[in-house]
Amino acid sequence: MHLRRHGSILLVAFLRRLFAEPDPEARRRLERAVADVDRELAANLELTSLYDQTHKAVVLENAQFTRHRATIEAGLAASFGPLADLYSQMPAAESAMDRRGPANSIRDDDRALIETWEGDARAVQRDLRVALAAPRRSAFALMLSRLRGVLLSRR
User: Fold this and answer.
1) To bridge 97 with a disulfide, which of 24, 48, 57, 110 should be the other Cys (CB 3.0-4.6 Å)?
2) Containing domain of residue 131, as a range?
3) Dist CA 120 CA 155 (whole Å)
């Protein structure tokens, strides 16, 4: 009797989670995290623009990404990989800004690395905004879409 009751409680809890809408508080935390990281990326792009004009090395910011890393990883898993990759490339971009040749010149490969980082930052920034704007789906809807994908791939 006790086992049957416990099993039915677990089944009800599972079904609630399966059909439940996403938590509004978690959504607010995710929106705040994306907004903070978006602002940080915008500031870093401004700094690289300043570098382009003055050729004075700058230090890029990463505090907001470090602060909100877990929230973004949990809420926007598909967008997190490129974002983490971008932040892992930041030290190389900063080092490229530090290196200078004669008459304050910049090597072509360093310039390419900095410009690639800037382009990637803009792309990641756009992807974060798009991913956040996408409608949130329940766990059941996500499971059905994955199941459809698996069945279509087996044809």
Assistant:
1) 57
2) 23-153
3) 36
